[in-house]
Specification:
This protein is mainly α and 200 residues long. It has helices at 7-31, 34-41, 45-51, 55-75, 83-100, 102-113, 120-143, 152-168, 170-177, 182-198.
Length: 200
C-alpha cells in the first residue's frame, strides 16, 4: 500500500526532482552529487535522503517520469487518421517537447550516451514494443500507397534526431542562428521536409 504524502512532503519531493533534473541535465549522472541536488532543492542532505535513498533513486524517478511524457507523442499516432498529417503531427509534438522540456531531453540524452544502464530494460521493452507497433502502421500506409515507401523505423529515428537536436544542442543552435527563434523555423522546415518525403 502506497503511503499518502502530506502537502509538505509532496512539495519537498517535487523540489528534489526539479533540482535533480537541473543538476543531472547540466552535469550528467556521474558528475552530479547528492549535495548538489540538496543545495539546489533548498534542503539538507539528510532531508533529501528521507525521500530518496540515493542519487540513483532520484535519477531513476526522473527517467521514469520522463519516459511517460516521451512516449506520449508516438502513442498518439492514429492509424485511422490521414497518414501524412499523423506523421507531421508526431514530428511537431516531438519538437514541442524539445522546446518545452529541454532539461528532460538532455537528461535522456546523457543516459543514452552512458549506455542506458538505468533504463535499458524499458528501451528493449515498452519503447521497442510501441515503436514496432507504430512502425507496422506506417508500413501499412506505405503498402496501401498512402505514403511513399520508406523504412518506418528509420523515419521515426530521423524525427527523434531532428527534433531532440534543438534541445540537446541548444547552445550551438542559438549560437548559429543568433536572434532568430529556432523553433519557429524548425517547425516550418520539418513540415516541408516530411511532407515532400512522404508524399507518394
Amino acid at each position: 500500500m502506497t503511503k499518502t504524502l502530506t502537502r509538505i512532503q509532496q512539495r519537498n519531493r517535487s523540489a528534489i526532482l526539479d533540482a535533480g533534473l537541473e543538476v543531472f541535465s547540466q552535469y550528467g549522472f556521474r558528475g552530479s552529487t547528492l549535495d548538489q541536488i540538496a543545495e539546489a532543492a533548498g534542503l539538507s542532505k539528510p532531508n533529501l535522503l528521507y525521500y530518496f535513498p540515493s542519487k540513483e533513486a532520484v535519477h531513476t524517478a526522473l527517467l521514469e517520469r520522463l519516459l511517460e511524457n516521451w512516449l506520449a507523442p508516438l502513442q498518439a499516432l492514429d492509424p485511422t487518421g490521414d497518414p501524412i498529417q499523423e506523421i507531421l503531427g508526431y514530428a511537431q509534438r516531438k519538437l514541442a517537447l524539445s522546446r518545452d522540456y529541454p532539461r528532460e531531453s538532455r537528461l535522456f540524452a546523457n543516459e543514452i550516451l552512458q549506455g542506458a544502464p538505468r533504463i535499458h530494460n524499458i528501451l528493449r521493452g515498452d519503447l521497442k514494443t510501441m515503436v514496432d507497433d507504430k512502425a507496422a502502421i506506417i508500413s501499412g500506409w506505405a503498402e496501401e500507397g498512402q505514403i511513399a515507401d520508406i523504412d518506418p523505423h528509420h523515419l521515426i529515428f530521423s524525427i527523434w534526431a531532428f527534433t531532440q537536436h534543438y534541445a540537446d544542442f541548444d547552445v550551438q543552435v542559438r549560437a548559429v542562428l543568433g536572434d532568430k527563434p529556432p523553433y519557429d523555423g524548425a517547425a516550418v522546415f520539418l513540415e516541408t521536409l516530411y511532407e515532400k518525403l512522404l508524399t507518394p
